[in-house]
Write a structure and sequence with these properties.
single chain; about 100 residues; mainly alpha
């Protein structure tokens, strides 16, 4: 929680809010993994709200978490595609081996 300053007093300048990573969260939701992408969108939407309410540390944390969830969404999609490719390679090898009489 930030320190409250009187209306007539000095107020610190914290600068612009952190990057909320909303574009990455939306792309992760649409192109990759839907459940993880939705979490990333929720975290990204919290950034500006927290910033303008005066919760600057929490806004930075929400921005970092939005980036983290979007990244995990993309990584999980990559792992899923890799497993899909491995599955088809194994199936083609198994079918090829039985076709050529190599399997017993």
């Amino acid at each position: 929680m930030t320190q409250q300053y009187p209306y007539y007093g000095w107020q610190p300048n914290y600068g612009p809010p952190p990057e909320n990573n909303l574009i990455w969260a939306i792309l992760a939701t649409v192109l990759c993994c839907l459940p993880l992408g939705i979490v990333a969108i929720v975290k990204a939407n919290q950034v500006n709200t927290l910033w303008f309410q005066g919760y600057h540390a929490e806004a930075h944390k929400a921005a970092d978490e939005a980036r983290k969830w979007a990244m995990w969404s993309a990584i999980s999609f990559g792992i899923l595609i890799a497993l899909y490719v491995v599955f088809f390679i194994v199936m083609f090898v198994a079918v090829g081996a039985s076709f050529w009489g190599l399997a017993t």
